[in-house]
Amino acid sequence: LVIVLDFGGQYNQLVARRVRECNVYCEIYSYKTDIEKIKAMNPKGIILTGGPNSCYEEDSPSYQKELFELGIPVLGLCYGAQLMMHKLGGKVITPEVGEYGKTEIHYAPNAVLFQGMPETSICWMSHFDRIEMAAPGFEVVAHTADCPIAAAQNVEKKLYAIQFHPEVLHTVNGTQMIYNFVRNVCGCAGTWRMDSFVEETIQSIREKVGDGKVLLALSGGVDSSVAAGILSRAIGKQLTCVFVDHGLLRKDEGDEVESVFGPNGQFDLNFIRVNAQERYYGKLAGVTEPEKKRKIIGEEFIRVFEEEAKKIGAVDFLAQGTIYPDVVESGLGGESAVIKSHHNVGGLPDFVDFKEIIEPLRNLFKDEVRKAGLELGIPEKLVFRQPFPGPGLGIRIIGEVTAEKVRIVQDADAIYREEVDKAVADYKKANGEEPSWMPNQYFAALTNMRSVGVMGDERTYDYAVALRAVNTVDFMTAESAEIPFAVLQTVMSRIINEVKGVNRVFYDLTSKPPGTIEFE
Ligand code: XMP
């Protein structure tokens, strides 16, 4: 185990992910975690993350000096590096200018963490404070033009300080530096792998559940699908999955979920599909206000699920597809500000009669969940699904939701995704890599606008479809993706020709902020 001590920086989850990419298991804890607790966990290494403060100020996040005297290797990154120096007798100052972005850096040949790297390279800097004087016992092993102490090491005490961000991909060889720390300095064996995770989790689910009954709400999204897969492999028919088709899924999605998890699929479990389309359309009739739509869709889900749960009766466990970022973002893991109270964490349905919660994916990052899904034999199509909002097409149809509008947006969206996927596949075939414009999320939405057009010799008065595609790292900010114009034109022409009721296609150029990714 490696512990990532979170001082509130923006890249903290990235740090943990990079460690796991080295096949080393790690967990994120707040800098407020008691040192006795840390000792009790017996970590092989500790990484201190970046953070937004000045470490020499009174009330800044800090940690007692003892942390550096445990004999456990410590790597400080950015704020963590400054804190290490500050605590051990070095000096940190706030200079006139900070240092941001890609920066040329020079490494010393004897730098333990930079072994096997060119002496001059590029790193990602993002700091205003800097280390003015290294602490006694440290040697300086990297510098940039504006930062004379970009890294320092005390090999004997196994303490390492790096001013830049190796966890960010812009730092060339950054992952190698993390590897050098966790595998070489800390001596972690690198046995954290998805195949063993799946095996071990199946064992521990069996032990925990015994002959009890488990209920899972399956949405068809990546997390709940992988949770269903792993639970099914562990306990078979002791698992019941309730899949609510609210009629706001993408084209053919309900049937796809059923083909994987239903009676003719590859998993052994009780699968209940509730076809609640008409109920939802009924509730949504005449409703145009976005928040009201969201609320109705959410509440209706609870009602439908409640009815099914009542039919099933008491269960021993309620399973949830909570994953590690949900835990961290809910403020339970690290120190980063509580960004959103996650729907998967807390807020448990009080109408289900269950004794305990079971969350088999609670320690996994999204890319690990996907690997586990592949390991379990869940089809790639499901495992690599795009993010899809809980309220589904309900928030991609502006204004009132009707069955007709759902049909239009489903068909237009299916064409759009098919053409983008095809263009990406062609590009990959020709160039051996993904295109730079590869969007992280792309979908069609239905504007509530109708306009005049002409088709054949006829006047038309039909809807306009909006195409959205974004490049984003964290979905908190996003840029409109530069899908090649030829692809957009093909999509436009296919949608106009194949989807009845549409005579105009727009491409949404808005970034987030000011726009959001979804339309409502
Ligand atoms: P926005 O529209 O807020 O979307 O820029 C950011 C990301 O979150 C997804 N999203 C949701 N996911 N329930 C969800 O599970 C929701 O109500 C919801 N609203 C937005 C959206 O698809 C995008 O990936």
Q: Strand fraction band?
A: 15-25%
Rounded mean pLDDT score: 94
Structural class: alpha/beta
Low-confidence stretches: 336-347
Spatial strand sequence of the major β-sheet: 2-1-3-4-11-10-9-6-7
- Number of individual domains: 3
Q: In the CATH hierarchy, what is the superfamily of the largest domain?
A: HUPs
Number of helices: 14
Topology-level CATH name of the largest domain: Rossmann fold
What hetero molecules are bound to the protein chains?
A: xanthosine-5'-monophosphate
Annotated CATH architecture of the largest domain: 3-Layer(aba) Sandwich
Number of β-strand runs = 20
The major beta sheet can be summarized as:
9 strands, mixed
CATH class group of the largest domain: Alpha Beta
Helix content estimate: 25-40%
Radius of gyration: 26 Å
Question: How would you sum up the global shape?
Answer: globular
What is the CA–CA distance across the termini?
A: 42 Å
Catalytic activity: XMP + L-glutamine + ATP + H2O = GMP + L-glutamate + AMP + diphosphate + 2 H(+)
EC number: 6.3.5.2
GO molecular function, one term: GMP synthase (glutamine-hydrolyzing) activity
Function: Catalyzes the synthesis of GMP from XMP.
